[in-house]
Automatic annotation (TrEMBL):
One of its GO terms (biological process) is cellular response to oxidative stress. The lineage of its organism: Bacteria, Pseudomonadati, Pseudomonadota, Gammaproteobacteria, Pseudomonadales. It comes from Aquipseudomonas campi. This is Glutathione peroxidase. GO terms for molecular function: peroxidase activity. Pfam families: GSHPx.
Length: 181
């Protein structure tokens, strides 16, 4: 067997091993907000505790960005990641990505990962939100929060009414941090 053929086989085998190690929830990628770069969900979040939240720039819950950023800052040194996924599914997202980015980054100082706006509910939902819904339930409104353990399984989900600093959400985040991959 030639070196090239052997290298190809090793590459294919390694790739399938990586795919097998990546939980279904994290298989895929999303374009970063205000960037041409993409977030490889598996590469960025596999093995880490994660909070996923669908966001909207023009919602009454938009000030929760401040609490989500505080949550991220409080626990990021323990490995916590936060992923914000803007969506216009509930007709409250800005008309363009620049306005969305301004709300997130300028108005609220968000430093955690944010994607470009996505479809997060119904038949056209992106794979990430289809899997979140399969494990728990689909978001019923903006700022629905999912706490995911290091193994890629949802530990708990919280409605829009749950603020990022509420005891139940904090308890779930700490459980995710303590979880094993």
């Amino acid at each position: 067997m030639s070196r090239r053929a052997l290298a190809l086989l090793v590459g294919l085998f390694s790739g399938s091993l990586l795919a097998a190690e990546c939980p279904p929830l994290l298989q895929g990628e999303l374009q970063q907000l205000r960037s041409k770069e993409h977030i490889d969900l598996c590469q960025r979040f596999a093995g880490k505790p994660l909070v996923v939240v669908n966001t909207a720039s023009n919602c009454g819950f938009t000030p929760q960005f401040k609490g989500l950023e505080a949550l991220y800052q409080r626990y990021k040194d323990q490995g916590l990641e936060v992923l914000g996924v803007p969506s216009d599914d509930f007709k409250q997202e800005a008309d363009n990505s620049e306005d969305t980015a301004k709300v997130c980054f300028v108005n609220y100082g968000v430093t955690f990962a944010m994607s470009e706006p996505q479809v997060i509910s119904g038949d056209d939902a992106i794979p990430l939100f289809r899997e979140l819904a399969a494990q728990t339930s689909a978001p019923r409104w903006n700022f629905y929060k999912y706490v995911v353990g290091r193994d890629g399984k949802v530990i708990a989900s919280f409605s829009s009414l749950t603020k990022p600093d509420e005891a139940d959400l904090i308890k779930a985040v700490e459980q995710a941090i303590a979880s094993q991959p």
